[in-house]
Amino acid sequence: MPFVRIDTLGTDPARLDALGQAVQDALVQTPGIPPEDRFQVLTGHDGVTSTVRHGDYPGIRRDDSLVFVAITLRAGRDADRKRAVYRRIAELVHERTGTEPRNVFVTLTENGDADWSFGHGLAQYAPAGEGPAGAASSG
């Protein structure tokens, strides 16, 4: 169950949709997230009332077409799988929006089963009365 937040500067709804779909497709193709498991917040900042800031760390020259992709998901993927996710997101974003891969900044934040509520005030992955749960393979 990934939760995805995408932030970019000065964009239109079509680009936001393409960015969201590119990230979703990469998550389905690479770590095997179910296609219907889609929770995203897509934000285009106008540069006046809201904006994004960036530098050239670590030696990557970015411009204002930068896309920040923050993904929160349950723990359990190894470093190779994460690298594959980063690569596939950059490829699909480039294919679908023309955004250069150098301008695709991705972070993954992992958490546990009890850190998710899909609604109704319940922790669906960690029901009350159950002991500690191990890392799951989806989401």
Please explain how this structure is put together.
- This protein starts with a strand and ends in a 28-residue tail after the last strand.
- The chain is built from two helices and four strands, in the order E-H-E-E-H-E.
- The chain has 139 residues and is of the alpha/beta class.
- Residues 133-137 have low confidence and may be disordered.
- Helices cover 26% and strands 21% of the residues.
- The chain is globular, with a radius of gyration of 16 Å.
- The longest helix is centred in the middle third of the chain and has 19 residues, at 79-97.
- Strand 1 (3-9), helix 1 and strand 2 (40-45) form a beta-alpha-beta unit.
- The protein has a four-stranded mixed beta sheet with strand order 2-1-3-4, covered by helices on one side.
- Helix 1 (13-29) runs antiparallel to helix 2 (79-97).
